[in-house]
Amino acid sequence: MIRQEYGNAYVMPAEYRAAYVRDMMARAEAHGFSWSVWGYGGAFGIVDAFDGAKAEPNVMDAIRSLH
Which of 6, 45, 48, 58 has the fewest CB atoms within 10 Å, i.e. is most exposed? Predict the structure, then answer.
C-alpha cells in the first residue's frame, strides 16, 4: 500500500498500511504462497520515507509479528 505519493502532502495512516500488509501476507500464507515486500523507501517505503526521513515502524512490526 502506498505510503505517500511524491509531491502530495497526504500520508496514508500507518495503521492502515500495516493492516493491509498484515492481511495480504496472511492470505498469501493461508493459500501456500510465498510473499515478499518491495519498498524499502519512497512512496511505498517501509523503512525510509522521502528525503531520508524514517517511515513509521508499523509495517515492519507487522512483518516481524508473523515470524
Answer: 6
| Per-residue tens of pLDDT for the chain, all 67 residues | 888 888 899 989 989 998 998 899 899 999 999 988 888 888 888 888 887 888 888 888 888 887 6
Check: CB of residue 44 under 8 Å from CB of residue 5: no
What residue has cell string 500488509?
A: 21
- Find the radius of gyration of the CA atoms of the chain: 12
Question: What is the distance of C-alpha 63 from the center of its chain?
Answer: 9
29-to-3, 4, 10, 58 alpha-carbon distances in Å:
24, 27, 31, 20
